[in-house]
Design goal:
The chain is mostly helical. 68% of the residues lie in helices and 0% in strands. Helix 2 packs across helix 4 (136-145), helix 3 packs across helix 5 (148-157) and helix 4 crosses helix 6 (160-172).
Length: 187
């Protein structure tokens, strides 16, 4: 008799003392528009019954929304977990890269030291002709590793413009050559 009724409506009917309300069946709900109205509930107006049905429909909609929100929250938790895992993996990679760069830097330093020793052992004229063709930053790095006595001899034989640039870098202890057309910055 009470098939398709919302549980709250059945409870209302039980409170109202409607006959047959004590045994609701668990059959699938009927369409919302086909809600039977028992004879003893006739004291409710059609507007009140419509309001009760609208409220039930809103309750169902809110329950569905709640379920959607629960699913979204679970998906967000999973996404947050994945992002956290990826961040941790990236942090591990960053540590490995820093270590590799440190190793590379140590290797470069060792290679520059060895190259500086080679240039120190060369005749100043030969070293100067080779260093004239190198970038000023490389020459600067090499000269920093060479003995001053040898550096002076090589600088003396180098191209004047290159020798001036490298000398300024050595004086400023700055590895960067001045920009073309930029005014010189004095500390």
């Amino acid at each position: 008799m009470w098939r398709g009724q919302a549980p709250w409506l059945v409870a209302l009917m039980l409170v109202a003392g409607v006959a047959g309300a004590e045994t609701p069946t668990a059959e699938p709900p009927a369409a919302a528009s086909a809600v039977p109205v028992p004879g003893s509930l006739k004291h409710y107006s059609d507007a009140e019954l419509q309001l009760l049905q609208d409220l039930d429909a809103r309750r169902v909609a809110l329950e569905r929304r709640e379920q959607v929100l629960v699913v979204r929250e679970a998906l967000l938790d999973l996404a947050e977990e994945r992002v956290t895992t990826q961040v941790k993996a990236l942090e591990v990679l960053q540590g490995e890269i820093k270590q590799l760069l440190g190793n590379l830097s140590e290797k470069e330093e060792a290679e520059l030291d060895a190259l500086a020793r080679i240039y120190e052992n060369m005749k100043p004229q030969e070293a100067a002709s080779l260093l004239n063709g190198l970038d000023a930053r490389i020459v600067y790095d090499l000269f920093r590793r060479m003995k001053q006595k040898n550096t002076a001899k090589v600088l003396e034989k180098m191209d004047k413009a290159k020798a001036r640039t490298v000398s300024e870098m050595l004086a400023e202890k700055s590895p960067l050559p001045p920009l073309a057309g930029a005014p010189a910055v004095t500390p």
